[in-house]
Amino acid sequence: MLIFHKVLPVFFLPLGFGLLVIVAGALFKRWFAVWVGVTLLYLLAMPISGDALMRIVEDGNQVVPIRQVEKADAVVVLGGMVRYVPGAAMGEWGEAADRFFAGVSLYQAGKAPVLVFPAGRMPWMPHVRPEGDLLRARALLEGVPADAMFITPEVQNTADEAREVRTLLQYTASPRVILVTSAFHMPRAAMMFRFAGMEVEPYPVDFRTDYYKEWTPYDVLPSVRGLENSELALRELIGLAYYRLAHMF
């Protein structure tokens, strides 16, 4: 099932789909298809395209002052922010490190009595410590008491995280959680947690849209960042559609 969720979407995303069209066109000497694939990759690698798609999934989210956040049963910080590096006992921060610091700040502001980290680890990385353990160690250094932190069993995707967090909070009939994750991931993550039976207070961080950037000619030149934003946004939109349909049936 993990392979299904991780691999299949690749062929519907810009890089995988574009390369598939290019290779198929070259093999069957359909040069129009080759140009379609190249054009698709170019268009979706433009920063202006990546930014436009990112705005769709980040739309409606905004930074919320901590003082305005209502209290909940738990602060839940979704994973995906640590890079495993040789010699770094607690790993190194990736781009989504804002998730961790926002979660700790919410706990320290008294917004919830417990801080929850999912124990994310992929099956192809069996020898590394689960991310939740690393985040717990870092939170201890930030002054969060050990007995105020929960770590879920090992999880591999957002649906797993929602299910395991709900199990951890089973002592509450209808738990209310402050959900901390990247803004582009928030619509799908909040939906999954609601499907799992929790009331969700979204706390988005790690915004990727350049809200105040003025247009420049560089915005129509292909870039890795532009393609990455397009891929991230489209993956989230595909995930939203898939899980909504799955929940209906």
What does this structure look like?
The protein has nine helices and seven strands. The protein is an alpha/beta fold and 249 residues long. It folds into two domains: 2-59 and 222-248, no CATH class; 66-205, HUPs (Rossmann fold, 3-Layer(aba) Sandwich), CATH 3.40.50.620. The strands form two sheets. A five-stranded parallel sheet has the order 5-4-1-6-7, sandwiched between helices. The chain has a two-stranded antiparallel ribbon with strand order 2-3. β2 (82-83) and β3 form a beta hairpin. α2 packs antiparallel against α3 (31-45). It is globular. It starts with a helix and ends with a helix. The model has no long low-confidence stretch (mean pLDDT 92).
Brief overview, please?
The chain is α/β, with parallel strands linked by helices and 249 residues long. It is 46% helix and 14% strand.
Please tag this protein with its features.
249 residues, alpha/beta, Rossmann fold, 2 domains, five-stranded parallel beta sheet, two-stranded antiparallel sheet, 9 helices, globular
